């Protein structure tokens, strides 16, 4: 009943809860109604926060690391046991190909829980044997306490991956959480509630509230006076709003925000591997990954080869039924998002772009034309002054821009208010290291893209975020250390 994904309910204090009203979740594949979602009003959000506080104070906050690790491992098993249910829920909400949901979203949810069970088992805090000049000696050591009751607010593009990337370390560190999934993707967070309950998570440790952002569940949660911290993934402007919301109570935030990521291709790059890697980096998940490349700077001697090769890659993408094995590319998340991406297609043309491929809305036949489909698109003839080269589009689009020198490439790539990720393509590894280190970003790849080690720091600079998560960086955010000093 609670996980009937046609009627999606909130999960508060260990039970599924109706909202006073519901809203419709519309399929981006064909425009049909996929589910009715129970909206959490401020009363339900308050109950969820109180339940989390009770859980924290009545034992969960004092559990040992082995106890929490055991829960994380049971949750991992629970997701694996219902793997295909999670895939189906993710596909239904997003329209992404089932093959992608399997490999990326649900596969990573399993790995997220496994990784943070391992990380919390092996990481410790500082201890110092102190010897002062006056002869006194002391033992200083820090103990890690949970940060407390945490709001976790996430977007729609990789719903379960991004949710569990925060829930797993938060629970590993003994926090109690209230998660607010995107209104566009309510299903997998709800299914996870069932897995949590079956795995024995105490009531109130994991709560889910559904709704929108402003004047809705997102705002009710992030402005709640009893929240100890907010971890958020989404648009930079939303991060800014949430920062203002928590400022009066000076609560910590961790923000993973937007990107306008650059790739830099040198003339000495392995062209076939580069085209393959660039193609993935522009078009994966219909360009709806914060790490996707939207600016491609190519050294002039190989500009035409890269442009032609990448246009060929785009033409080979298969848009269609997400359950067909041959489908590579789903729709955008919604009609509203398609309207935004389409407006950038128009802006590019107005700015004088040469459209190398795509540039419009495809005709996929009567069954699919009610969906939010868009053509994979590449532009040449633009420079860094064009709005489409400066603003995050978050769709399957990229501008290809020529450069001459290494110094120019670095300057063009860094000419942005964002700073999430970059990729450098070259067979000269000294140059690869040199250029990667000069990128003003949180993550800089060389001859690859979105290759992850979950122990490494993940996050951005500038408009792309605040803080780092991943491995011990996550533990640093999700715990509050208390230093104990004992004179010996
Ligand atoms: P969004 O900011 O509109 O929404 C994200 C979440 O915040 C949703 O759950 C939404 O309901 C909620 N929200 C919106 N307004 C709010 C408010 N005033 N108070 C509280 N909550 C509010 O983002 P989106 O459109 O869902 O996702 C796309 C964006 O996310 C892109 O900019 C993308 O780059 C970014 N993103 C970044 C990362 C990263 O790791 N850096 C990862 C994925 C997505
Ligand atoms: O892989 C991850 O850990 C991560 N946080 C990815 C974010 C992707 C953005 O859409």
State the end-to-end distance.
60 Å
**Count of separate structural domains:** 2
Spatial order of strands in the largest sheet: 15-16-17-14-13-18-19
Based on secondary structure, the structural category is alpha/beta
CATH superfamily of the largest domain: Aldehyde Dehydrogenase, Chain A, domain 1
The molecules bound to the chains, other than polymers, are: nicotinamide-adenine-dinucleotide, (2E,4E)-2-amino-6-oxohexa-2,4-dienoic acid
How much of the sequence lies in strands comes to 15-25%
Largest sheet: 7 strands, mixed
Strands, count: 21
Query: Under the CATH scheme, which architecture of the largest domain would be assigned?
Result: 3-Layer(aba) Sandwich
């Amino acid at each position: 009943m609670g996980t009937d994904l046609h009627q999606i309910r909130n999960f508060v204090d260990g039970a599924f809860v109706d909202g006073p009203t519901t809203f419709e979740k519309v399929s981006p594949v064909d425009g049909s109604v996929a589910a009715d979602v129970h909206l959490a009003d401020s009363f339900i959000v308050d109950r969820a926060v109180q339940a989390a506080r009770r859980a924290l104070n009545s034992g969960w906050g004092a559990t040992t690391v082995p106890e929490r690790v055991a829960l994380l491992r049971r949750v991992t098993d629970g997701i694996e046991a219902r793997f295909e249910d999670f895939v189906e829920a993710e596909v239904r909400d997003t329209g992404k190909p089932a093959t992608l949901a399997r490999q990326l979203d649900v596969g990573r949810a399993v790995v997220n829980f496994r990784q943070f069970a391992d990380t919390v088992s092996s990481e410790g805090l500082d201890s110092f044997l102190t010897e002062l000049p006056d002869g006194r000696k002391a033992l200083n050591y820090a103990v890690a306490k949970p940060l407390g009751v945490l709001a976790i607010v996430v977007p729609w593009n990789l719903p379960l991956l991004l949710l569990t990337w925060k829930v797993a370390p938060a629970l590993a560190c003994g926090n109690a959480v209230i998660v607010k999934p995107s209104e566009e993707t309510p299903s997998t967070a709800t299914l996870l509630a069932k897995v949590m309950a079956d795995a024995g998570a105490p009531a109130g440790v994991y709560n889910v509230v559904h709704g929108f952002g402003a004047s809705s569940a997102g705002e009710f949660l992030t402005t709640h006076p009893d929240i100890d911290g907010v971890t958020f993934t989404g648009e930079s402007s939303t991060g800014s709003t949430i920062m203002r919301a928590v400022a009066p109570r000076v609560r910590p935030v961790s923000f993973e925000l937007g990107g306008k990521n650059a790739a830099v291709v040198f003339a000495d790059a392995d062209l076939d591997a580069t085209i393959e890697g660039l193609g993935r980096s522009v078009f994966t998940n219909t360009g709806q990954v914060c790490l996707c490349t939207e600016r491609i700077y190519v050294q002039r001697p190989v500009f035409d080869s890269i442009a032609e090769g990448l246009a060929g890659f785009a033409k080979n993408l298969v848009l269609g039924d997400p359950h067909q094995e041959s489908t590579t590319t789903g729709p955008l998340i919604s009609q509203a998002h398609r309207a935004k991406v389409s407006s950038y297609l128009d802006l590019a043309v107005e700015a004088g772009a040469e459209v190398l491929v795509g540039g419009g809305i495809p005709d996929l036949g009567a069954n699919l034309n009610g969906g939010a489909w868009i053509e994979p698109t590449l532009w040449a003839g633009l420079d860094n002054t064009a709005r489409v080269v400066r603003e995050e589009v978050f769709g399957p689009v990229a501008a290809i821009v020529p450069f001459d020198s290494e110094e120019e490439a670095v300057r063009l790539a860094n000419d942005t208010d964002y700073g999430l990720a970059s990729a450098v393509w070259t067979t000269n590894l000294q140059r690869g290291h040199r250029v990667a280190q000069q990128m003003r970003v949180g993550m800089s790849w060389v001859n690859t893209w979105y290759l992850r080690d979950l122990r490494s720091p993940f996050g951005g600079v500038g408009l792309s975020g605040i803080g780092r998560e991943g491995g011990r960086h996550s533990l640093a955010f999700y715990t509050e250390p208390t230093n104990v000093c004992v004179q010996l």
